[in-house]
Design goal:
Helix content is 38%, strand content 35%. It is α+β, with helices and mostly antiparallel strands.
Length: 276
């Protein structure tokens, strides 16, 4: 650093000028992104349906001593996203099955608020039948989705050159038909049961609602840009100047020692001359 400053006395001025140049360039980039956006945020309307539960079909297997209950539901397949079933008053060692011939994505951790680092896109299974074994009985639930594409549910973002193009892209992402949309729920219990479990089927359909330009607060983003650049240059300049000033202090100390020694030598020479 010391050598650099010696070779270029205007280095500090150059660094400061470069810092302010980068600050204004970054601020202009943020401003340009604000006045000419290409990203749009769209929202969806969510319709949740709790289906009426009809009397199930009962089939008793005398040979295996198990009772099989079956419920059949007709869901709306237009933009269908979620298919969830919950069962209550289950007996011990019951088996619940959620069946849809078009296929659903599900996982035991789907819908679990305590699941950490869980992504359905990476870990969900795609099957026409999902089942759950309830060893203790009581209440259980199976959560499933028709797709793992997050753009089809709970809002999303699209890149486009105009609002009309962005809306077309958003509608294209959301619109889909899940067919066949017949949902079958089966519960298998041990023994000859006379009372069926309580079954609740909930489906969710989503439709396009609105779209708007993604915008940022230019002033706030500019202040963040200034803080980032100043922080980066401070990390570079403060240690460098600390080393420089420490070296200058050491050099000044050595100069003082040298001056003192020279003064002693000159004084000795003067005394010798006076003696002669």
């Amino acid at each position: 650093m010391q050598k650099a400053l010696a070779q270029n006395p205007n280095l500090l001025r150059t660094l400061l000028g470069l810092s302010f140049t980068l600050i204004f360039l970054l601020g202009y980039a943020v401003y340009g992104a604000t006045i000419s956006p290409s990203y749009y945020l769209y929202t969806t309307d969510t319709e949740t349906t709790i289906h009426d539960t009809n009397e199930p079909t009962k089939l008793y297997d005398e040979e295996n001593n198990v009772t099989n209950w079956r419920w059949t539901f007709s869901a709306d397949g237009v933009n269908l996203t979620w298919v969830n079933v919950s069962a209550g008053d289950l007996s011990r060692n019951s088996i619940i099955k959620l069946i849809n011939s078009a296929g659903l994505y599900s996982h035991s951790k789907l819908g679990d608020p305590d699941a950490d680092d869980f992504s359905c896109e990476d870990r969900c299974y795609y099957n026409s039948t999902h089942e759950l074994f309830s060893d203790e009985g009581g209440d259980e639930a199976i959560y499933s989705m028709t797709t793992t594409d997050p753009g089809r549910r709970n809002n999303g973002t699209v890149y486009a050159q105009s609002l009309e193009s962005a809306e077309d892209k958003a509608r294209e992402i959301i619109q889909h038909l899940h067919t066949p949309s017949v949902i079958i729920v089966e519960v298998t219990e041990k023994g000859n049961k006379s009372t069926s479990p309580d079954i609740v089927l909930v489906t969710v359909n989503e439709d396009f609602n609105d779209i708007e330009v993604f915008s940022v607060d230019t002033a706030t983003e500019f202040l963040w840009a200034v803080a980032a650049v100043v922080g980066c240059f401070s990390m570079i300049l403060i240690p460098s100047f600390t080393v420089y000033f420490a070296a200058r202090a050491k050099e000044r100390k050595n100069e003082l020692k040298l001056e003192a020694e020279e003064e002693k030598v000159n004084q000795s020479i003067s005394e010798i001359d006076e003696a002669n």
